[in-house]
Structures are given as structure tokens and as C-alpha cells.
Design goal:
386 residues; alpha/beta; Rossmann fold; 16% strand; glycosyltransferase activity; Glycosyltransferase involved in cell wall biosynthesis; Glyco_trans_1; transferase
Length: 386
């Protein structure tokens, strides 16, 4: 059972450190990348008690993997935090007050810490969208992050970034002490144990190895128009009967997404799959001719590793973190060039090239581990409290 008293601390071990986790920002089933991050970093602490640690998990609803409070891990559900104004109130005013008596340090996995909190914090900043592409996340969120990321990184707090590329970006925009900065890579192994037996292929009318796919596609940052024009060019060169189809995965969402969907639906061979379950997505990767992930910018790029582990060749951009994540297990393209992406689609359709990339991708993804990332994050949290 979860406790409804947000000020109740854990008292199982008088010598244990009490850590709060601010997951108030996560909308389970909606947030995609950040939900994946929180789940894979925090869930191991929930399932097996780390030595000398106890946790208070602040959220707006319980996550799908929750099976009840544990003696060392309790949830505090603040439903009103689903509204942005209330979440900011909890993050910046309420948590600092609660922290006076309820916990020893705070883990903030969602970009911002609590600027007024008089306890040490470890804060994960996943990207520099607020400075580089504010339009992708909205003006108000950009302003909030640009104000409170630097404020919450003052004093003895530690910054965790998910790539060296993001760390470099943040050094440009925030006054960061390099000694408090930790690069802890994400991973892509969370789809490896699940599948649905090919149902998604039947539903979409697909044949194994006869389609490319893109994920999280219906945002401008994903470079949709260049990719779609490149696909159209590839089809013209390959011939309509020989060309692979292109499956677009993701929630269409706002008017920008709808414009992209309308444009895509007019191109022969393009299939709009919508948002998929992890089981369906796993099957899609396993049978795809290639993941096309030629984004304009990524703080990390989890889909690259998802594809590599599941034996799917990858085409990705030369920009930001993507070469860092992909290693030599992907075809790198100039994300602004239609002809470059079209040529990559043709090249990766060749059996020899695809097999080489699959082999190299398998080697590369083994460098990344969610368990390692979880352990390293906990180490940072423990050290920040010293």
C-alpha cells in the first residue's frame, strides 16, 4: 500500500540514506523517452533494495510496473501535479519544505531540480532543447528550463547528462563545474524480452524485410520532410515494385504533427502506424529493413540502440549525440540532404551492407547497459550526499 502522507519518511534502517525521487513530470504511457529513462534507472532500486538506501517516489500516478510499496521504497501520489502549475509549485516550493524532515537528498530525473532545496541533488538533463530548439518543447517550458536548470545546478548539486554531446551543449549555456558533471549513457535493451508474434506486420500489411521504419516521427525535430522527400526519391530510383515501404510510428498530436501526417499520406508506400505498444514496436524492429533516424538533434537517441540490439540496420544523422550512440554500427548521413538520405536508403537495402551493419550494431549496443546506468546513477546520488 502507498502512503497518503507526503511528509512521512522511511524508518526501516536508522543508518540508511533517505532519497527522494521527483517523477512528478512523468505521464506514464505518454512521455516516451523520459518515461523509459525513469523506469530503467529507478525500477531496479524498487525491485531490489540497494544497500543503505531508502526511497520516496513522488509521482502524479503510479507507474505501470508498480506492485505496491516496499519497506525501502514508497510512493507519494500527488494527482494535481498532472497540471503544470501545480507541478512547478511542488518542485520549487513544496519539495524544499518537505525535504527539511523527510529525505537526505533528491534525485531529479526530469531536467530541473528544486532551486530552494537545502539538501544535495542529482539532476538529469537529457538535452539542450530549451536553448537550441525551444519551439520543439514550447516557449513556457523552455523559459522554465532555461531559468531553473542553471539555478538548480548551483552549490554541491551534481549534473547527470546522457551523452557527451549533451554535456558539451550544457557547458555552453550553463555555468557548470566539470567536477559535478557526470555522463551516464542510456541503453536500448528494454525491448529485447518482448514481442507479439508478428501481429503488427499482419495488421499493417507488411512483409519481413520489405519496409523501413521511423519512430516518434511527427515532430519537426525528427526531420520529417527531408526524410519523406528522400524516401520519395529512393522509390523513384528503385521502382515502385522494388522499393521498401516506409512505416511511420508515433502520436500525431498537435497541428504540426497533423501537417506532417497529411504530407506523408500523399506519398505512395508510406504507412502511418500511429502509437504502438512496446510489444508491437519490438516486432517492427525485428523485421524491418532499417530504422531511419535522421533527426536534426537528439540528446541521446535510444531508438538507435533498440534497433541495434534487435538486429535492425540503422541510418542516422552525423549531428549531436547520434554518432556517439551509433558507433560504427550505422550509416551516417547529412540530415539536411535529401540526396544523402536517399542514397543511404538504397545502400542499406543491399544484403551485404545490411548484414555488416547488423553485425557491427550488435557489437556496439553491448557497450550500453541500463543496469550499469542505474548503478552509476545511484553512485552519483550517494556521493552527492557526502
Amino acid at each position: 500500500m502507498k502512503t497518503n502522507n507526503p511528509t512521512v519518511g522511511l524508518r526501516q534502517d536508522l543508518f540508511a540514506m533517505k532519497y527522494a525521487i521527483n517523477a512528478l513530470f512523468v505521464r506514464w504511457g505518454v512521455n516516451a523517452g523520459t518515461e523509459t529513462y525513469v523506469t530503467n534507472i529507478v525500477r531496479p532500486w524498487y525491485e531490489s533494495k540497494p544497500s543503505g538506501c531508502e526511497f520516496l517516489f513522488y509521482c502524479n500516478q503510479l507507474p505501470p510496473w508498480w506492485k505496491g510499496d516496499r519497506p525501502w521504497f514508497r510512493a507519494i501520489v500527488l494527482k494535481s501535479a498532472k497540471r503544470v502549475g501545480w507541478r512547478i509549485f511542488y518542485e520549487q516550493l513544496w519539495l524544499p519544505l518537505v525535504g527539511l524532515i523527510s529525505f537526505d537528498a533528491l534525485f531529479a530525473p526530469g531536467y530541473v531540480g528544486s532551486a530552494l532545496l537545502q539538501k544535495p541533488q542529482a539532476i538529469t538533463v537529457h538535452d539542450a532543447f530549451a536553448w537550441l530548439y525551444p519551439g520543439e518543447i514550447g516557449l513556457l517550458r523552455s523559459l522554465y528550463w532555461r531559468m531553473f536548470i542553471p539555478l538548480s545546478l548551483q552549490s554541491r548539486n551534481s549534473l547527470i547528462t546522457v551523452s557527451a554531446s549533451t554535456a558539451t551543449d550544457l557547458k555552453r549555456f550553463c555555468n557548470i563545474d566539470s567536477q559535478t558533471l557526470h555522463v551516464i549513457h542510456e541503453a536500448g535493451s528494454h525491448l529485447s524480452e518482448i514481442n507479439e508474434g508478428g501481429t503488427i506486420l499482419e495488421r499493417l500489411g507488411l512483409k519481413p524485410g520489405k519496409y523501413f521504419h521511423c519512430v516518434g516521427f511527427f515532430k519537426k525535430i525528427k526531420n520529417p520532410y527531408t526524410i519523406l522527400n528522400a524516401y520519395h526519391s529512393y522509390c523513384a530510383a528503385a521502382g515502385s515494385n522494388s522499393a521498401n515501404k516506409l512505416v511511420l510510428v508515433g502520436h500525431v498530436g498537435n497541428s504540426v504533427g497533423q501537417e506532417i501526417a497529411d504530407f506523408a499520406s500523399k506519398i505512395p508506400g508510406v504507412i502511418l502506424a500511429g502509437r504502438l505498444t512496446d510489444e508491437s514496436l519490438s516486432d517492427l524492429y525485428r523485421n524491418s529493413a532499417a530504422l531511419i533516424f535522421a533527426s536534426l538533434y537528439e540528446g541521446f537517441g535510444i531508438p538507435i540502440l533498440e534497433a541495434q540490439e534487435l538486429g535492425c540496420p540503422v541510418v542516422t544523422s552525423r549531428s549531436s549525440s547520434m554518432p556517439e550512440v551509433a558507433g560504427d554500427g550505422a550509416l551516417l548521413v547529412n540530415e539536411g540532404s535529401v540526396s544523402d538520405i536517399a542514397a543511404a536508403l538504397s545502400k542499406i537495402s543491399e544484403k551485404t551492407e545490411a548484414e555488416t551493419l547488423i553485425r557491427k550494431g550488435k557489437v556496439n549496443y553491448q557497450k550500453f547497459s541500463w543496469q550499469k546506468a542505474s548503478d552509476m546513477t545511484l553512485d552519483v546520488l550517494r556521493k552527492v550526499n557526502r
